[in-house]
Each structure stands twice: as C-alpha cells, then as structure tokens.
C-alpha cells in the first residue's frame, strides 16, 4: 500500500469536491451553478477528481432536474483513503483506522498503563502496527495520523500536560518514523472537531468534554479556535467560586475542581464512604434513586449550566455538545442543565449529549486528517452514509 504524502489540492478542486460531498449526488451542470464556475472548468476539475478516484460517476440522473439531456450524477468516494486516529491519555491509548468518510475498519485500545516520556513512542508504534494490519487497499493509502493529547498543544507542539510528561516535539519524532502526515491536537479540541464534522449540521459547535478535568473545544465553520497558545476553551479553569478550592493551574475555585467527574467521585467517595468510584457505579446508584448521588449529579448539572451560560454569552455557538460518560447514560441531566439556563441571553442555547460519545476525539482525528487531505475546512460528513 502506498503511504506517500499528497500535494495540497487546489482551491477550485476543493470547492467542487465539497459541493459533491454536501449534495450527496450532483450533476456537472448543477455543480457549475452551485460553485459559480463555468462548465469547462467544472468538466476539467471533475475529470481530474475521477482520475484521482475521489469521485464516482454513479448513475444517470433525472433530466427534469436541470433541463436538457439526462445528466450523469457524481458522488464522493469516501473510501478513497484511510486515516489513523489515536487518543493518547495518561492511562490508556485508544486508536482506530477509518476511511476518510468516518467508516471504521478497526479499533483497538491499550488500558491499565501509565504513559510516560520513555514509553509513549513504543505505545504509539504498537497501536499503529495493530491498526495498519487492518488497512485495506485504497487509491491514496493512509493520508494521516492524528494524535490526541490530554494537555495543551500549541501549533502542534506539546506545551503543558498536567497528568503525564511527554516530549514537546512528539510530532517531529513521529514524522521521522512514518511517511504520512502527522497531526497533534488537544483531545477536547478534537472532540469538538469530531462533533462538527461527523455529529452535527451546525456551523458553530462548542463541545464540553467532562472527564478527569473539563475542557471545551470551539469550532467555527470547521476551524478550531485555539487561541495564540492553545489555551482557548480551557473552561475547566474558569473561576466558579472566587477564593474556592485550590487548582493545580494556580487559580482558586476553578470549575473543574467542582464539576469534573473526578470532583463527583471524590465528593461521593467521602459522603458514601466508598473507595474507587467510577462512572458505572455512579450511574447505577443514580438510576436506583440513591438520594446522595442524585443530589450530587443535580448540583453537577447546575454547575455545568453556569459553564454553558458563560460559553453562550462569549461565543454564541449554534450548538453545545456535552461529552460525559455520566450524562450520556442519564439523559435527564441534560434537561436539568437546560432548565438551569435561566439567563435571557443563554436560555435558548441548544444543548445536546454527544452522539459520538467516547469516540468524539477519535472522529476528530479522522476529521483533521481528512480536512487536510481534501483541503476542505468546513467539511461535513455523515458517518452513517
Ligand atoms: Zn484551574
């Protein structure tokens, strides 16, 4: 299989390709109108896209759609290339190999580990080897490897990882090992990109990832808003209580000290005198009506409503996606959160639980590689197609 790097697609080619993807199927005449390009240009661009096997001529369309001869309908070839997507957390690595349309060929995970400076490359190599064994032949081979990092990533350099130590130039090291493009991005940012590309029809999406900490990813028309140093979206370190609980970031009273899953577990462990709580136990106790767990999770929904209110008045996104293993199993928590959005400026904010769930970050990695491969920023894919 060829793993060569590709050259960046030219703009008109990307515009035509995006129109074909968004319309599902379209004729050359319709493309000419939609893209604002003359028929000769459309004809030569589609010829090249057909040669590159990025599109197919699928069937004869209905003449009535645009008049004249019956047109040949064009469709996107979502199986033209493959992507590798990895989520490298402090205590696990998950990965998948998928076509550029998001269809997964194989997924794998390594759990119960402690990722460190010394072993991260070996773990990534192990995962990439496992995944590429399941690669199928495609016209363009593997287009990219995207690695999600649980920490700050600035211009694809790792700048701050509170829960593990990684080499700041991990991307450069991986680029030396592999012939395809390598991308590095913060996991909450990738989750947001995954939601934007594969999970929603909205133009602007904020995804709120609630795990050990709390992070948000902000996407507008397919572009991640990361800030100058990658700090944008670090809502876990917005201040909920002035002079409140100390946070490792240096602030007092940060949101994630009260509203992260870790905060939920610590609080319940103390109140219920139960060690090592996890989301399954919390969910089970909530569903059985345990009043202590119910009260704690209701309070959590209230805290998160404050975060959503703040995000809404700062960014006014079309959609806020909550990514939490607890919220995905207890949908009524989303209703409680929405009910607590009482501000006139934020009460209409759309809030949903993630449809991609645990895979949002990995789908974000697929989106990142595919965006670059196709040179389409505002790429929207229906992963079920
Ligand atoms: Zn903090």
TrEMBL record:
Keywords: Carbohydrate metabolism, Kinase, Transferase, Xylose metabolism. GO terms for molecular function: kinase activity. It holds the Pfam family ROK. GO terms for biological process: D-xylose metabolic process. InterPro entries: ATPase_NBD (IPR043129), ROK (IPR000600), ROK_cs (IPR049874), WH-like_DNA-bd_sf (IPR036388), WH_DNA-bd_sf (IPR036390). The keyword Transcription does not apply. CDD domains: ASKHA_ATPase_ROK_SaXylR-like. Transcriptional repressor of xylose-utilizing enzymes. Belongs to the ROK (NagC/XylR) family. PANTHER family: BIFUNCTIONAL UDP-N-ACETYLGLUCOSAMINE 2-EPIMERASE_N-ACETYLMANNOSAMINE KINASE, ROK (REPRESSOR, ORF, KINASE) FAMILY. This is Sugar kinase of the NBD/HSP70 family, may contain an N-terminal HTH domain.
């Amino acid at each position: 299989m060829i793993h060569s790097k590709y050259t960046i697609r030219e703009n008109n080619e990307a515009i035509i390709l995006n129109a074909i993807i968004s319309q599902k199927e379209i004729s050359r005449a319709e493309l000419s109108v939609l893209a604002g390009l003359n028929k000769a240009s459309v004809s030569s661009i589609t010829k090249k896209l057909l040669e590159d096997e990025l599109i197919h001529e699928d069937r004869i369309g209905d003449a009535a759609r645009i008049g004249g001869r019956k047109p040949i309908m064009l469709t996107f070839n979502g199986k033209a290339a493959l992507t590798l997507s990895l989520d490298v957390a402090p205590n696990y690595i998950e990965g998948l190999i998928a076509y550029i349309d998001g269809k997964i060929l194989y997924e794998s995970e390594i759990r119960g580990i402690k990722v460190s400076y010394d072993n991260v490359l070996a773990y990534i190599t192990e995962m990439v080897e496992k995944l590429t064994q399941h690669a199928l032949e495609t016209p363009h081979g593997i287009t990219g490897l995207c690695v999600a990092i649980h920490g700050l990533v600035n211009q694809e350099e790792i700048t701050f990882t509170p829960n593990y130590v990684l080499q700041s130039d991990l991307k450069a090291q991986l680029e030396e090992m592999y012939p395809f493009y390598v991308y590095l991005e913060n996991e909450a940012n990738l989750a947001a990109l995954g939601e934007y590309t594969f999970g929603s029809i909205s133009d602007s999406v904020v995804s709120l990832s609630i795990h050990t900490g709390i992070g948000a990813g902000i996407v507008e028309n397919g572009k991640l808003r990361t800030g100058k140093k990658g700090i944008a979206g670090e809502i876990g370190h917005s201040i909920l209580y002035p002079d409140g609980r100390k946070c490792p970031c240096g602030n007092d009273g940060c949101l994630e000290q009260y509203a992260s899953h870790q905060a939920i577990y610590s609080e319940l462990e103390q109140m219920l005198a139960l060690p090592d709580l996890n989301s399954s136990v919390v969910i089970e106790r909530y569903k059985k009506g345990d009043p202590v767990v119910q009260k704690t999770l209701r309070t959590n929904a209230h805290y998160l409503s404050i975060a959503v209110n703040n995000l809404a008045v700062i960014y006014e996104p079309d959609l806020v996606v909550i990514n939490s293993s607890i919220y995905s199993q207890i949908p009524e928590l989303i209703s409680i959160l929405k009910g607590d959005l009482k501000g006139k400026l934020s009460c209409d904010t759309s809030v949903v639980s993630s449809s991609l769930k645990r895979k949002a970050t990995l789908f974000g990695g697929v989106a990142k590689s595919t965006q670059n491969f196709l040179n389409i920023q505002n790429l929207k894919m229906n992963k079920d197609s």
